[in-house]
Specification:
Elements (H helix, E strand, L loop, with lengths): L3 E15 L3 E8 L3 E7 L10 H5 L2 E10 L2 E12 L7 H17 L7 H16 L5 H18 L21 E4 L4 E4 H6 L12 H12 L2 H5 L5 H18 L8 H4 L10
Parallel strand pairs: 3-5
Antiparallel strand pairs: 1-2, 1-4, 2-3, 4-5, 6-7
Helix pairs in contact: 2-3, 2-4, 3-4, 4-6, 4-8, 6-8
Length: 265
């Protein structure tokens, strides 16, 4: 039985107990995308590999592939994101982002843009000031939209999905299942095609556009009212439900408030 030994650098997205002393990790790298790897003896008290894989860090792992199964032969931490866990808000956002990346990616698929977005996001969280629950929800929604774009689910925010004309203010509705905006003219002419649309505030559409295009730092300065924030969360959640391969166990806004141990293994 032949085996292949190789190394790659990436981060751990999730983990779970495996057999008596082992642990299963969801490892994510720019080169290989998402892999499920097994660390033998990682649950033992004196395991040397486990500390490198338990914390949110950039880790170089040595892997052995045998018949499609990956076993960790060694691990070294290259960079740590320990500042993420000095505050509850950044810690929750870090856990939530790893969870969302795990949901939107498939094993073996190319994932370099998603990987680099996650790294950019974690570096941003390390330097950002403390965030309110509302602001955390807006930022995580923006991160989710960018993930959707990198994974091929970017919604149409500027032109009508049907006729492709530029969207005018207050002259459109939103379709989560189709993924974007449709003008009222097309809604009237093709009612049978657009049975599940909803009204959307101009301010909410603007926030969706900003969330995809503006730097995260600029979104920190953007004023968002409570009603726009609520509609923004509902729109992003509906988009995720319609297009992500796996549905999150809690809505985006709740991820910013619930103890990560409650829904991350």
């Amino acid at each position: 039985m032949s085996s292949t030994l190789f190394s790659t650098t990436g981060v751990v997205l999730a983990r779970a107990s495996y057999r008596e002393d082992d642990r299963l990790y969801v490892f994510f790298s720019s080169e290989l995308g998402k892999l499920r790897v097994i660390a033998r003896g990682a649950r033992k008290p004196k395991a040397k590999i486990a500390p490198h894989l338990e914390s949110y860090a950039l880790v170089r792992v040595l892997l052995v592939e045998t018949r499609g199964f990956y076993t960790v032969a060694g691990a070294d931490t290259e960079a740590s994101f320990h500042h993420l866990f000095t505050r509850d808000d950044s810690a929750h956002l870090a856990f939530a982002s790893a969870h969302l990346v795990d949901l939107v990616t498939r094993e073996g698929d190319p994932a370099s843009p998603v990987y680099h977005e996650l790294m950019h996001w974690w570096k941003f969280l390390e330097t950002t000031p403390a965030l309110s629950v509302r602001r955390s929800g807006v930022m995580l929604g923006a991160f989710s939209l960018r993930l959707a774009g990198h994974a091929g689910y970017l919604p149409e925010l500027n032109r009508c999905l049907h006729c492709r004309t530029p969207i005018r203010p207050s002259y459109f509705e939103w379709s989560s299942t189709r993924g974007g905006v449709v003008c009222l003219d097309c809604l009237e002419r093709h009612q049978e095609m657009w049975l599940r649309t909803q009204a959307l505030k101009n301010e909410t559409l603007k926030l969706l556009r900003m969330s995809h295009h503006y730097p995260y730092e600029a979104l920190l300065q953007t004023s968002v009212s409570a009603d726009v924030c609520e509609e923004f969360h509902q729109t992003v959640d509906a988009l995720i439900l319609a297009h992500f391969p796996v549905i999150p166990v809690v809505p985006i806004q709740a991820m910013c408030q619930v103890d990560p141990a409650g829904f991350f293994r």
